[in-house]
Amino acid sequence: MLLDSLVNRPNRIPERQRAFQAATHLPVYRRGKYSNVLLNIYAVSMVAGVVTTLGGIYAMVTTKPGK
After folding, report:
1. Is there a domain that residue 37 lies in?
2. Where are the transmembrane segments (predicted)?
């Protein structure tokens, strides 16, 4: 059928539980498969937002008021 690849999938929960519960030096939010990528995307977007905000504040402060 159309949805068989989505519905009839092997149960991967036990192996994922073992991966997250393993004794490692990493915090839980860093143990996932794509966690580093997602955290880096989040960090870059936060830095970009702060830089954009500070640039806007600087532009408003340094411009001379018009008539």
Report:
1. yes
2. 37-61
